[in-house]
Amino acid sequence: MNEPRAYLPLRPLPVAVRWAVLFVVSLLMAGVLQWVKLPAALLLGPLAAAALVQMGGGAVRVPRLLIVAAQAIIGCLVAQSITPAIISGFVHYWPIILATVALSVGASVLIGWTMSRLRIIPGTTAVWGMLPGAATVMMVMAEAHGADFRLVAFMQYLRVVLVAAAASVVALWFAHGGGGRFSAGLFPPVDLTNLGATAAIALVGAGLAARMPAGVLLGPLVLGAVFNVLGWVKIELPPLVLIATYALIGWNTGLRFTRDVLATAARALPQSIGATAILMGFCGLLAWLLVEFLHVDPLTAYLATSPGGVDAAAIIAASTKVDTSFVMALQTVRVILLLFVGPSVARWVAGTLDRTSASPGPDGAPDLGNLD
Length: 372
Prior knowledge:
With 372 residues, the protein is mainly alpha-helical. It contains 15 helices and no strands.
């Protein structure tokens, strides 16, 4: 089938020049977002720049090793926030945390099942696409279980972008007097011993857990959290390292939005946005309940329940003055829950869809659904 040839001004450029364009556009967009004091600007700027460059034909590939390193550093960033206080907080509030996580995951499954049942998106693709957190893991699992990988990728990263943008705006509204991760400047004093220990945690943790889903992030997270809680290591993450990490994660996400993926998902775009908005609204309701009944800070509650990724939540939380330990407790528990129950839930939903599709129609013939 012949498709109209799109104008791609960046395609003729050498790869090195494409990288230069991506770098400059990222600086400009991040600078603008920083100027308007939007939290997580250093994540959202590169992400938007990567999407624009990709649409202009300037596709580049972020080296896998750099993505692995960025995920390991984010694991250390999360571990840095896990202190004895967060452990005692989880022990004290574990029924509330588990209930909140279960409700948010259940809502995402219900929304995805409804989209599949109404044949907005075929099969179990919508369920995989709506599961919150660990977007890359959900994409890999979806492909292994026969779902449409392209639509899952689109839905996952569309949700990540929408949730990150909304959470950043909410953070701007509720920000408590500025400050944040880089309030001490870009070149604060660095403890080389702790920096070396942090690098070792990232390397060893990622290596030990590399074979498990999201292990590159979760390995350093668990190992770093143990050392941090026990007081054996103070995790050291210089601002420039975090800035580079945010840029890599933003680029890796933005570069997923290829023209092919957008073309494939165009018909489902309004429904996908609507489904994401419903899920965000439900999670916002959960946040309101936390504020009303537990007197949690509004921004803390919103970031804790937001249905994006744990890395984006960590970045935004680090950019504002919130109870990061509470945010990370909820986000981390949800990721762990999804890793263990996500495939089983998707298989169960697939079974219900199969039974529905196989049931006789009004004329006695099986309802075969949309076979497109």
